[in-house]
Amino acid sequence: MTENGSTLIAPSILSADFGRLSEEIKAVENAGADVIHVDIMDGHFVPNITIGPLVVKAVRASTGLPVDCHLMIERPDLYLKDFRDAGADWISVHYETCPHIHRTLCAIKQLGAKAGLVLNPGTPVNAVRDVIEVADYCLIMSVNPGFGGQAFIDFSLEKIRELKALLDAKGLSIPIQVDGGINRETIGKVAQAGATIFVAGSAIFGADDYATEIKTLRKIAQA
According to its UniProt record, which residues of this chain constitute the active site (predicted)? Predict the structure, then answer.
């Protein structure tokens, strides 16, 4: 899953201009992005409502990059096929919303998508010790999910290190993705802690030049 020197930059369209979403997606793809990150929120699990499969279908039609759907929703099992059919290449679900997380991860993989396991800031790494090897990637939330533009939670660094140590102890090469407050000031520390996939919203879409920002973020991460 990781190329570009084991560093993937995943712009989050939550911070894009939805009035010209297709143009924004094409712009970050041309600027060197590796993955398009799509935040799906239901107004129940998180205090915000964003988009559904119809918009994901439009995202899929706008890019040749992998489409990464992060399901911040209750009862995600009911919608896995809908998002896969809409064009999601990667689908991540929260440990906190899945009473049978092993079954849910397996269901995503059976649909032919990469399965991501997401942990909220308050969920310990040890909670997923027994199921982590089922995941294709693991997402550490470094903010409380629900809104873009939040400040990075500092204790996330120790959590990333703990997850990396767990994966190493199990002999697993599962990539660690981090979402929340990723910018020029934080991405280096997050990379040093063990992450290789970086979700950035406002840092990229708020920049004057997407290509320069993506190149700079990648350079800092790889340093």
Answer: 39, 179
Residue 131's nearest CA partner among 156, 153, 101, 108 is: 101
HSE at residue 139, side-chain half, CA atoms within 13 A, is 29
Domain that holds residue 105: 8-222
Whether this prediction's pTM lies above 0.85 is answered by yes
When divided into structural domains, the chain yields a total of 1
Instruction: For residue 105, tell me if it sits in a domain.
Output: yes
Name the binding residues for a divalent metal cation.
Answer: 37, 39, 70, 179
User: Which residue of the set 34, 39, 42, 68 is catalytic?
Assistant: 39
CA distances from 112 to 19, 66, 145 (A): 31, 13, 26
Dihedral of the alpha carbons of 192, 115, 10, 66, in degrees to the nearest 10: 140
Say which CATH number the domain at 156 has: 3.20.20.70
- Report in angstroms the alpha-carbon separations of 116 from 13, 103, 174, 198, 217: 18, 13, 10, 14, 23
Q: What is the pLDDT of residues 109-159, one digit of tens each?
A: 999 999 999 999 999 999 999 999 999 999 999 999 877 778 899 999 999
Cα 108 off chain centre by: 15
39 assigned to active site: yes
